Amino acid sequence: MVDCGLNLSAPAFADRHASVLDEAARQQVTRFVLIGTSEHSSQEALALAEHHPGCIATAGVHPHDAANVSPGYLDVLRTLAADPRVRAVGECGLDYNRNYSPPAIQRRVFTAQLALAADLKLPVCLHERDALDDQLAILDEFRRDIPALFAHCFTGDRAALEQYIERDCYIGVTGWVCDERRGADLQAAIPAIPESRLLLETDAPYLLPRTIRPRPKSRTNLPSYLPYIVETVAQLRGTDAQALMHTTTENAQRLFGEWSALSVGQDEEAAHE
């Protein structure tokens, strides 16, 4: 399986990156998309992908961090994106729920990253919360020049889903779908996601699935918990969990490309030849 959204550079995983990935592998989760959310975390995501098999990365600035970019942030992202392990621009978008960065700055930084993705012909990993209309209006300026769009950690309702599907977006489903308190709208939308556009992700260390039994003592989500998301999504779609795993893995490979050529082990062998 592929975890299409893992924040491995988060402080919660400090000094235990290898053990977190090994534990996930024991649950059949062997490929990972390491999300970049700032200049620094994007650099860390790539560094981690270079050292751990099965990992690729994204490079981008989250709307929460938009006000903190350096004057040369686009050059930083462009340099990172030149590495074959970086497969998408983002996580980028708009978040009016908390407005940690002023909306005008969010829009400017989002627009600049879309222009970069269009220039580099890379997919975009999207973030959006309480900003759907503005997000879609900006996306529509660039989407014909961007090879693919990925609505990372989608938590919206059926109406929002239809807007993203109209734009041929891949839809990432996290442990939000396992939340009996907040996840009702997403649960109702799950059957409407086209099979070819469905992706699964944990967004770890955030969004711990509430269906885990017994409930873990720690609130830290882990990529090894992806099977709980698989189980819930399979039930909601009336499909077999194994079939869902196969389909979503194929979808991830179509969006991000193959992982196999970037194995750390293969790189090390080549260096000694």
TrEMBL record:
<protein>
    <submittedName>
        <fullName>Hydrolase TatD</fullName>
    </submittedName>
</protein>
<keyword id="KW-0479">Metal-binding</keyword>
<feature type="binding site">
    <location>
        <position position="203"/>
    </location>
    <ligand>
        <name>a divalent metal cation 1</name>
    </ligand>
</feature>
<dbReference type="GO" id="GO:0046872">
    <property type="term" value="F:metal ion binding"/>
</dbReference>
<keyword id="KW-0378">Hydrolase</keyword>
<comment type="similarity">
    <text>Belongs to the metallo-dependent hydrolases superfamily. TatD-type hydrolase family.</text>
</comment>
<dbReference type="InterPro" id="IPR001130">
    <property type="entry name" value="TatD-like"/>
</dbReference>
<dbReference type="InterPro" id="IPR018228">
    <property type="entry name" value="DNase_TatD-rel_CS"/>
</dbReference>
<dbReference type="GO" id="GO:0016788">
    <property type="term" value="F:hydrolase activity, acting on ester bonds"/>
</dbReference>
<feature type="binding site">
    <location>
        <position position="91"/>
    </location>
    <ligand>
        <name>a divalent metal cation 1</name>
    </ligand>
</feature>
<feature type="binding site">
    <location>
        <position position="127"/>
    </location>
    <ligand>
        <name>a divalent metal cation 2</name>
    </ligand>
</feature>
<dbReference type="InterPro" id="IPR032466">
    <property type="entry name" value="Metal_Hydrolase"/>
</dbReference>
<feature type="binding site">
    <location>
        <position position="152"/>
    </location>
    <ligand>
        <name>a divalent metal cation 2</name>
    </ligand>
</feature>
<dbReference type="Pfam" id="PF01026">
    <property type="entry name" value="TatD_DNase"/>
</dbReference>
<dbReference type="GO" id="GO:0005829">
    <property type="term" value="C:cytosol"/>
</dbReference>
